[in-house]
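=== How it folds ===
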Amino acid sequence: MKVAIPVTNGYVDGPGEGLVVQIYEVENGQYKLIEEYENPALRAMAARGVHMLKSAIDKGVKAVIVAEMGPPGFRLLQNYNVKAYLGEGLDVKTALEKLIKNELPELKGPTHEEHHH
């Protein structure tokens, strides 16, 4: 299963905030980094998290680990049947280990309301 994580300084971040996006292959209790690229959200003007999530979906991910998620991003993931897990405050290694052990909470809705600028 491919899992995408927005990352800043080694920690799980929000999809609109992470400096890079890391994509991991997770299977048989193991994980390995298969791709890392600059977060396209950093250049977006609105609904930034959606840009990051769409880029990951285009690469075939089935799950994301995020520190937070707004309503537009959550709706996008629902449309593509991609699961979201909350890894707030965790470094990437811990988040992946918890995912493998089914210890990360799955998001059942956005963690915050729409942003108004």
About this structure: The beta strands are 2-8, 11-12, 20-27, 30-38, 63-66, 83-86.
